[in-house]
Amino acid sequence: MAAGAARAAHRAAAMARGDAPRDSYHLVGVSFFILGLGTLLPWNFFITAIPYFQGRLAGTNNTAETLGANHTAPEDTFNFNNWVTLLSQLPLLLFTLLNSFLYQCIPEAVRILGSLLFILLLFALTAVLVKVDMSPGPFFSITMASVWFINSFCAVLQGSLFGQLGNMPSTYSTLFLSGQGLAGIFAALAMLLSMASGVDARTAALGYFITPCVGTLLSVLCYLSLPHLEFARYYLARKPPLAQSQELETNAELLESDEKNGIPKSPHKVALTQEIDLEKEPEMEAMEPQKPEKPSIFVVFQKIWLMALCLVLVFTVTLSVFPAITAMVTSSTSPGKWSQFFNPICCFLLFNIMDWLGRSLTSYFLWPTEDSRLLPLLVCLRVLFVPLFMLCHVPKKSRLPILFPQDAYFITFMLLFAISNGYLVSLTMCLAPRQVLPHEREVAGALMTFFLALGLSCGASLSFLFKALL
After folding, report:
1. Is the confidence at residue 114, as pLDDT, over 80?
2. What residue ranges are annotated as transmembrane (predicted)?
């Protein structure tokens, strides 16, 4: 790990001295930004279009119910929002465990380009199905299969791209994560434009699903252009022996975004930490002359278990209600323009903007610290969002009353819910590496990656229970 960090620092220093070629017109940076955007488009476009899928599964074809413009949401007889969340997160957990095997057996270019092409093909199928009349049962089965395979390829794609970014200056990881952070906002805006277009429901839905096809095709072109750019060739051709270790280490930064919506924890702090580590490395070696070649997973877990547990709890709470419960909340006002756009704006667009803001706050400060008891307290307090959202204006509830009918309640809850999710996720991912020695950070990153995926899967599973309690 120290050797890998040293190589990265030397490449960055060489670039600063002018020894490396320049990124002409920032084409490589723009390419990785678009690739980051493309990796999270599938998840965000599927969850933002939940009203469309519910309308198709309910057998309705009118503009209001198909595009989410309905005042009372169609009955979710298939538990679509729960299943789409679960089948999106399980592949992430599975491929987190299989990544090392895939990296050894399948060439990098095949993993990246193959994943992009399959994602493009499956999204094209989703767009075609908009115009195909089909009974709810087969439509649900085909859609769920698409969700599973699309997110499986996305998991492989993200890990592979971050493996490449491990050879680039840290600025390009920042651009990649920034692109991921805008994916959710992009999907929400695409839905709003489709609803406001004034065309018939199916045409609007077709335009909505063609958008990620264009985005994925653009990602393919960006990846194919990298070998033709001198700057990219300079870094990507110099793959160090420990590249796989770098892939695992940086994978934690990648998955910090997932879901939805990756924002770099703090590019300035990352660069500063690397410099400090390089300065302290001789001292650490002197203090640990018999440093083990491979750190013990159990020893590393003992150091970061609290951060790992906090990360699991944050995502368990978030995925247990978003979007399974929050997508069911409707406006309490009379039917009109506001009620038509209420959920796309106040649920999806607001969540993604505030989550992005929360993640970016760690670029300026890290509070509370890893030793503070306040951090686990704040994480546990987020459990309160579960009953708060379940008691909002969800029509057709049979077990729980509506205690917060006004729209302002839901908007306030969503603001706090989203910004706390983004900030606490980014904070725990920033603090975990600070609790281990430099040579243990690879294992710490892999462990945090696993627990992040575990939290997402646990939350998606719990959403079925909370939906049944409504």
Report:
1. yes
2. 25-47, 83-102, 109-130, 142-163, 175-199, 205-226, 304-329, 341-362, 374-396, 408-431, 443-466
Could you report the per-residue pLDDT of 430-451, keeping only the tens digit for each? Answer: 898 889 998 888 788 778 888 9
CA atoms of 362 and 263, how far apart (whole Å): 10
Q: Which residues contact 206 (CB under 8 A, 6 or more apart)?
A: 127, 130, 131
Q: Which of 281, 273, 249, 271 is nearest to 13 (CA)?
A: 271
Q: Cβ(439)–Cβ(295) under 8 Å?
A: yes
Residue 69 has pLDDT above 70, yes or no: no
Instruction: Output the pLDDT for position 283.
Output: 47
> What spatial distance separates the first Cα and last Cα of the chain, rounded to whole Å?
49
Q: Which two tokens stand for residue 405?
A: 């009918």
- Per-residue pLDDT tens over the stretch 305-340: 999 999 999 999 999 999 999 999 999 988 888 988
Supply 361's token pair. 């706050």
User: Residue holding tokens 């695409």?
Assistant: 190
Average pLDDT over every residue of 127-131: 91
What residues have CB less than 8 Å from 218, skipping those under 6 apart? Answer: 34, 38
Tally: H helices and E strands in the chain: 20, 0
Angle at 343 between CA 338 and CA 348, to 5 degrees: 130
Is 14 part of any domain? Answer: no
Q: How many CB atoms lie within 10 A of CB 392?
A: 25
Please report whether residue 336 resides in a domain: yes
Q: Is residue 20 part of a domain?
A: no
Residues 6+ away with beta carbon under 8 Å from 56: 66, 136, 139
Beta carbons of 249 and 165 less than 8 angstroms apart: no
Residue with tokens 């610290």: 369
3-state secondary structure (DSSP) of residue 173: helix
CATH number of the domain enclosing 266: 1.20.1250.20
* 80/312 Cα distance (integer angstroms): 24
